[in-house]
Specification:
By secondary structure, this protein is an alpha/beta fold. Helix content is 24%, strand content 26%. The protein has four helices and ten strands, in the order βββββαβαββαβαβ.
Length: 159
């Protein structure tokens, strides 16, 4: 029996809050500004594993599975033609962007380096995004040129 070839999506879209990292941005007292270093899945070496805000000392960290998924998307040949996007209705988009700029998935590889498209926020200032993720997907589809049928979406909310 012949095994069918593997198919991978052209675009994988991730929600951020409570899907990729914790805590949610609205729970923070201020924008994260301090890097916290540690182990990036043991054998992957050391890197920035936390984005700490200085008002109350809350630290945003990636979930272990999210870190592993991003590492594989970045490194594995079968995903070399797959793009990655963020679709987040964050109430604090500047906080989300600070985390994308700080958190590493591999030594010296920031989260932002993995993502090709960003639809973050829920206001007109964020590109006419709303709390309804359909506005995020419309923006990502327009920017990427990739049809919805060729996308895979991960979110912690089902609404």
């Amino acid at each position: 029996m012949e095994v069918p070839p593997k198919t991978v999506p052209k675009l994988i879209v991730f929600d951020l809050d409570m899907c990729m990292w914790s805590p949610e941005m609205y729970e923070l007292s201020s924008k994260p500004s301090k890097e916290v270093r540690g182990s990036l899945n043991n054998e992957m070496g050391e890197g920035v594993v936390g984005a700490k805000e200085l008002t109350r000392g809350e630290t945003v960290t990636l979930f272990p599975g999210a870190l592993l998924a991003l590492q594989e998307l970045y490194q594995l040949k079968e995903f070399s033609n797959t793009k990655v996007a963020a679709a987040s209705s964050s109430e604090e988009p500047s906080y989300s962007h600070a985390c994308l700029d700080m958190l590493e998935i591999l030594p010296n590889v920031k989260m932002r380096d993995v993502f090709s498209f960003f639809a973050i926020g829920r206001t007109k200032a964020c590109g006419n995004l709303t709390s309804d993720k359909r506005t995020h997907f419309k923006k990502i589809r327009e920017e990427s040129g990739i049809d919805f049928q060729e996308m895979l979406f991960f979110d912690d909310c089902n609404w």
